[in-house]
Prior knowledge:
Layout: H1 3-6, H2 13-24, H3 35-135
Amino acid sequence: MSEQTSKQAPLTIQSVRDIITKEHDVLLDKNDPILMAVTMHRAALDEYDRLLKLHEQQLSEDMASHVSVFAGEIRKSTNSLLSKAVKTNIDNCLSIINAHQAQMERFLCTLKSMAILAGVFFVLSIAVSISVIVWGV
């Protein structure tokens, strides 16, 4: 069979008669029993094509269902991971804020101590100034 004839579709009785005439130089009658094979082959191909379309439709529905379930699971996992990431980020921020708050409390305590010390030095300086004025020492 030539390459050109293998590309012809659909297979009809007349196309088979033409192919046999061309390839084998034999002219088949319209009622030749061998042409029943063409009819049976065409029916089998049509049934096969119908089944393929049915399977393709079923596979598409199944894939759509699986993809939908898969997308839902991914969405759940993504939301869970995002929630965990946000919680971790918030926890990190809170720990940094708590560390900063502790550091600020130490700073304020030191600042108060310095203010008290400055007050003591101020009182001492006034006492020394008064003693110098009064006693002239």
